[in-house]
Amino acid sequence: MDVKSFIKAARLRTLPLSVSGIILGSYLGNNFVFISSNLSVRNPVWVTSIFWLAILTTIGFQVLSNFANDYGDGIKGSDKNRTGETRMVSSGAITPKQMKSAIIITAIITLMIAILLIYVAFGKENFGYSILFLLLGIASIAAAIKYTVGNSAYGYSGFGDIFVFLFFGLLSVVGSYFLYTKQLNLTIFLPAISIGLLSTAVLNLNNLRDRDEDQKNNKNTLVVKLGPKKAKKYHYFLILGALITALIYVFLDFRNVYQLIFLVAFIPLVKNIKTVAQNTVSAQLDSELKKVALSTFLFAILFAWANTIF
Cα–Cα distance between 305 and 310 in angstroms, integer? Predict the structure, then answer.
């Protein structure tokens, strides 16, 4: 068994995007605890066990999703002529049986970390919350696997965007915030929507790049269903929508102009809109994936920092 092949299948370049929501939600949640408890000293979020367990859980979900995607597309033949990173199952570097075993092992390890996270966050006093988050964890594992695996894989029916928005946006940000606060604040949904829309924009770019091959292989992503022109307009909506919801949050809780420092992250995102608008060769969009993913990661850090420090 080639460990390097599994590392490639894990697609480490996707990890910064997957932890963006955890960073943002954890910072805001930890800040809420500091303010509401009238503490004199703020504990940095990165020294809390909740933060690191949440990061590890999300990384587990992302790697699981990447393994399942490699396996599902590989056995269905959807990756034969794809652009971008070589997929391990379709290339023969990893057998379907080996990848299936990796999926099972990753799912078990991730669930164990998630259970530890739930215990640390809620203890024995909040049993109802523990059950809720355990069910959400199981749902996340099922959703990650069913994206491309099975006859009813929703990634082949145009519902992948909804999965990314809900799990890597709303659940990631609002869930990590709740782990700290044990309560919901409706305004937290605004930056959660921003992260969700930007994460979906990365998926949309991926699907714009692979549109021709996906169409040939009956992988009916939202891009295939919409067509290139409408899919580009959808992309503009995702990025501009993320900007608007972030600005609304700052407007509702405005304290200092430095809260707008997150706008720096939108400079490459606005450039990305121009690139997508002018694009005529879908394969050339591959380099844009990394730019949008890292811009989302930068947005999460800047937004979290500026709205908890100033």
Answer: 8
